[in-house]
Design a protein that fits this description.
The protein has helices at 18-26, 33-47, 49-68, 70-79, 84-97, 106-150, 168-180, 201-250, 274-280, 287-294, 303-310, 312-323, 337-360, 368-390, 393-427, and strands at 153-159, 162-167. With 445 residues, the chain is an all-alpha fold. It has a domain at 156-251. The radius of gyration is 35 Å and the shape is elongated.
């Protein structure tokens, strides 16, 4: 049972995967995971900036093309005023001829969505892993203190009706020695595991067991009660104090959020109950999955030991003081700030993108596509809100920072492009203010 006196955390290895390696390994120079995610998101957004810039340039060129062919579009609208289908076809033919691209933003959007869902899976796995690791470290602190205290001799311990000085291990040895004298059923069976009539068989075993119980059962039960009482009165509380001290060292919050591995919501506690803990560690609650994902060796950490560690009895003993009513550690985990920001910024980002597309002429024609785009302006923020309420605050923090970065990039690139456009327009004019021959070339912008 070396497992009980050693650190379980030494057997756990960081999960693999691109995002896990980056966030848990490459960016580990930032201790706080909240700020680590902020820094990681900014770096990721800057890395993808060329795609955003490509999209904006394409949109700007589309805008210039739209302005240039506006008279032709108006002529088509007058010519096919009563035939919307033909009008739409003619407009698309004209746009295609002039180099207008409806789908210039598809590539950046596809890449962004792929990264979003891939990163969602990665951050979810990291959160499950960190929830497990945090508990394992608390379990180690509890077990280490409990193991030490079990060998300490305490005074005035009641044992068989008397006050004595004895340790938990001392009482446990007395109980084990007494149980060792109990009749063994195997002594009354043959090599095939069948009751042996020559040894008296099952009847002889039951008779011997009854005789043993008559003399020793009450003493055995008394030793158990005394051992449990000593544990409750002198060991349990101190082991749980060690857990509280350890939690103060390893807790991972961010600004107002007490536990960053849980959602930023007021209806969840910072310290999870066992059911919520089991849910939050996901596949790690299954030994077979944990062995595969963490690279555990079965001879180092058996299935029975692992199940006992994360079982409700061990979990409740380890976290009891942290989850106690009135504990400073067990208040609400958050105040819905990140979920509200995720919805608001997502809507604002969608709104700005929509306006930019409209200005560039990329807005979908009236009809089904336009209705779908308007619906997406509602669905996307609501989807962000759903993720924020259901999943870890780490992922919501990524959504918020990513949306804020998107808005800033849109604003600054728009300002830069507008400034360049004015500069090019100025170059096209002669010193006396008369427009030179020709129109601005979209390639210049």
């Amino acid at each position: 049972m070396a497992f009980l006196t050693s650190s379980v955390a030494q057997y756990l290895h960081d999960p693999g995967g691109l995002w896990e390696i980056l966030i848990l390994g490459v960016f580990d120079f930032i201790a706080n995971y909240g700020w680590r995610i902020v820094f990681f998101t900014v770096c990721l957004k800057l890395l993808l900036f060329p795609l955003d810039l490509y999209q904006r340039i394409k949109m700007r060129k589309n805008q210039l093309i739209t302005e240039r062919i506006k008279p032709q579009l108006e002529k088509l609208q007058q010519q096919y005023a009563g035939d919307r289908q033909t009008l739409s076809q003619k407009q698309m033919e004209l746009n295609k001829k002039e180099g207008f691209s409806y789908f210039s933003s598809c590539l950046p959007m596809i890449v962004t969505l792929v990264i979003f869902f891939y990163l969602f899976a990665g951050l979810n796995n990291i959160s499950q892993y960190k929830n497990l690791v945090q508990y394992v470290e608390l379990y180690d602190a509890y077990t280490a203190e409990e193991t030490t205290l079990k060998s300490v001799e305490f005074e005035d311990i009641e044992l068989k009706g008397e006050k004595v000085t004895i340790s938990w291990n001392g009482i446990d040895k007395m109980y084990a020695d007494l149980i060792a004298t109990q009749p063994n059923a195997d002594d009354y069976k043959n090599d095939k595991g069948e009751w042996d009539a020559g040894k008296g068989g099952e009847e002889a075993y039951k008779a011997a067991l009854d005789a043993w119980n008559a003399v020793n059962l009450e003493e055995a039960n008394t030793l158990l009660r005394n051992r449990n009482t000593l544990h409750t009165d002198h060991i349990l509380g101190k082991a749980q104090d060690a857990v509280v001290e350890k939690y103060d060292e390893i807790k991972e919050g961010f600004l107002w959020i007490k536990n960053i591995w849980s959602p930023d919501v007021p209806w969840r506690k910072a310290i999870l109950d066992h059911d919520r803990f089991t849910s939050n560690i996901g596949d790690y609650s299954k030994y077979s999955k944990a062995v595969k994902k963490l690279g555990l060796k079965r001879n180092e950490l058996s299935e029975a030991e692992y199940k006992r560690m994360i079982g409700d009895t061990s979990y409740n003993n380890v976290t009891a003081k942290l989850r106690a009513k009135g504990s400073d550690h067990n208040g609400v985990n958050g105040f819905l700030i990140l979920p509200i920001l995720s919805v608001g910024l997502s809507f604002l980002s969608q709104f700005i993108t929509s306006r930019l597309q409209k200005r560039s002429g990329q807005a979908a024609p009236e009809g089904g596509m336009a209705g779908s785009m308007k619906m997406m302006m509602v669905i996307m923020p609501l989807m962000m809100g759903f993720f924020a309420l259901q999943y870890t605050a780490v992922f919501t923090l990524y959504i918020v920072v990513n949306s804020a970065m998107t808005i800033l990039i849109n604003v600054f690139t728009t300002m830069a492009m507008n400034g360049k456009s004015k500069h090019n327009e100025k170059k096209l004019r002669s010193p006396d203010g008369i427009q030179k021959y020709g129109r601005p070339d979209p390639k210049d912008l």
